[in-house]
Design goal:
The protein is an alpha/beta fold. Helix content is about 45%, strand content about 10%. The strands form 2 sheets. It has a 4-stranded parallel β-sheet with strand order 2-1-3-4, sandwiched between helices. A 3-stranded parallel β-sheet has the order 6-5-7, with no helix packed on it.
Amino acid sequence: AWLFFPGCQLGASDPAIVEKTYSWLRSRLPRGDDAGTGLLLRCCGAIGSWAGRDDLAQAERRALLDAWERMGRPVVVTACPSCARELQAVLPADRLRTIWDVAREFGLPVEGELAGLGDVRVLDPCAARDAPETRRAVRELLRRRGLRNASEGSRNGPEPDDGSQSECCGYGGLVTFAHPALAERFACRASSGDGKKITYCAMCRDLFARSGAEA
């Protein structure tokens, strides 16, 4: 009935998060007739597109869609903004949801607890620029966790914004592989400033942490 699609980078960065999230989804999402929540681990095709290899991207999307068809066309729940953007082009609108939208509807494993985290800044990934509902869902979840004063840090300067103009962290377009020094400058610029950084993209988080930010 449901299919958790965490994306490749989250599983590569922290497999335990994927395991815990999958367990939580299985406990929260409603079952269909003899149908629960599945798990699909593979690429969405974005990496091929960013590398200019549309042939590889299309092949990956076909393989993904074939797997989705064999599983009975479940609702796909993705944990990656880039995956969500890629899958919008190939899945029906009612068959795709983000993990943040699902969490807002079905509830987090725990509420509160983070009020004492201190100053935090929300850094939206560039893939969420055109996804205002995702950005709103993330902020609501942060409020539920007790972060009522989290500022929205603009990547274009010190003034806060709503995330609709956020810059790339340096991973998009595979800059981090093609020109590592430039990617580091991207990451340092995006995550500059005091306080802890909160993002909901594994690629952003990894590059921010690599640049020395507490992300």
